[in-house]
């Protein structure tokens, strides 16, 4: 295994256990933003790119674009939550159907 990341995975969720992978992910997202901005003049990573774009648009006085970015940041987590809830409900209903079929057959 790559020695600097040995011990990153942990079975116990603690702030210390989450700090290393969280830091690495933040550094990777920042690097993706920087490289994307230098290469194509646009922030390219997902959530951090949108937030960087909002800040950049505010600095340049482009309030409509900054507002659109803020609106997207407010809506996107709700979509993830809704998608997750729907997926969970589908699994529960599929499991309930399987239980009913097993009960009828049993």
Give a nutshell description of this structure.
The protein has helices at 15-40, 47-59, 63-105. The protein contains three helices and no strands.
Q: Describe the sheet with the most strands.
A: none
Runs with pLDDT <50, length 5+? none
The helix-and-strand class reads mainly alpha
Distance between the termini: 49 Å
Q: What level of helicity do the residues show?
A: over 70%
Which quaternary structure do these chains form? Answer: single chain
Overall pLDDT score: 76
Kindly estimate the percentage of residues that lie in beta strands according to DSSP. Answer: under 5%
What is Rg? 21 Å
Shape: flat
Order of helices and strands: HHH
Explain what this protein looks like in three dimensions:
The protein is mostly helical and 106 residues long. It is built from three helices and no strands. α2 (47-59) runs antiparallel to α3 (63-105). The radius of gyration is 21 Å and the shape is flat.
Question: What is the secondary structure topology, with strand pairs?
Answer:
Elements: H1 15-40, H2 47-59, H3 63-105
Helix pairs in contact: 2-3
Task: Summarize this structure as a short list of keywords or feature phrases.
106 residues, mainly alpha, flat
């Amino acid at each position: 295994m790559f020695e600097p990341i040995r011990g990153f995975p942990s079975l116990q969720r603690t702030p210390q256990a989450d700090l290393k992978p969280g830091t690495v992910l933040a550094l990777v997202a920042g690097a993706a933003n920087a490289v994307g901005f230098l290469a194509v003049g646009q922030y390219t990573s997902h959530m951090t790119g949108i937030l960087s774009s909002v800040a950049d648009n505010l600095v340049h006085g482009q309030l409509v674009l900054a507002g659109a970015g803020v609106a997207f940041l407010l809506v996107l987590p709700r979509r993830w939550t809704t998608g997750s809830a729907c997926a969970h409900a589908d699994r529960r209903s599929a499991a309930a159907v399987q239980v009913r079929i097993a009960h009828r057959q049993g």
